[in-house]
Amino acid sequence: MKFVLKWLLNGVIVVTMLMYYAxxxxxxxxxxxxxxxxxxxxxxxxxxxRATNNAVATISDAVLAFAVLWGAAYMMDWPLSFGEALIxxxxxxxxxxxxxxxxxxxxxxxxA
Length: 112
Known about the structure:
The chain contains four helices and no strands.
């Protein structure tokens, strides 16, 4: 369930903003969001968040998001500028911060 929530959150942000800034097709934006979500969930949420804290996991998710967006823009020749990628990354980072807080609280509730 947490993966689906992360996928929906990342999908709404990434798809909407890629379609707005870079005029990317819905399919390409959705694929990029899905790839980002898969990597960020397994690396950021399952490994880093469990081993560290919310701040470290959020920063690592943001760095990963920027790298994925920049790489996708380069490989697919999208007109996504550095600043636009940074804006998307910042919004994703804020969303991830709250998502990690929710996940952490729900994990505490399950343990109690």
